[in-house]
Amino acid sequence: MLPDLFRSPDIFRERFEQGLIELLRTTGEIGEDILVLANANFEARIWEHLRDELRSCFARLAAELAAAEREGRTLHGAPDDVATLREILDHDFDTLRPVELRRAGPWELQFNPLRAYRPARHSNAAISGIRAPFDESRFHFDKPFLRQEIIWEGPLRGRQATLLYNKFPFADYHGLLVPDIGAHRPQFLEAADLAWLWELALELNERMPGFGLGYNSYGAHASVNHLHFQTFLRETPLPIEDARWDHNGGGEPYPCRCLRFDDRAAAGEFIADLHRQEISYNLILADGLFYCLPRRKQGEVAYAPWLGALAWYEMAGGFPLAGAADFARLGPEEIAAQIAAVDLAQA
Question: Which residues contact 253 (CB under 8 A, 6 or more apart)?
Answer without folding.
Answer: 245, 246
